[in-house]
Amino acid sequence: MSKTTVIIRREFISRVRKKSFLVMTILGPLLMAAIIIVPVVVTQLSDSDYAVAIVDDTTLFSDSFEDTDNITFTPLASSIEHSLQLMHDGRFDAVLHIPEMAFQAPSTLRLFSERSVNISAKLRIENILKLEFESLKLSHAGIDEEVLRSIETPVNIQAIRIKDDGELITDYPEISMGLGIVSGLLIYIFIFLFGSQVLRGVLEEKTSRIVEIIVSSVKPFQLMMGKVIGVGLVGLTQFLIWVVLTFAIVGTFQLAMPDMFRFTPDEQVYITGSQVLSVEEMEKQKEIIQQYDTVAGQLMEGLMAINFPVMIFSFIFFFIGGYLLYAALFAAIGSAVDNEADTQQFMLPVTVPLLLSIIMAQMVMLNPSGPVAFWLSVIPLTSPVIMMVRIPFGVPYADLALSAGLLIGGFILTTYLAARIYRTGILMYGKKPGYKELWKWIRHH
Question: Looking at the domain covering 48-151, what would its CATH class be?
Answer without folding.
Answer: alpha beta
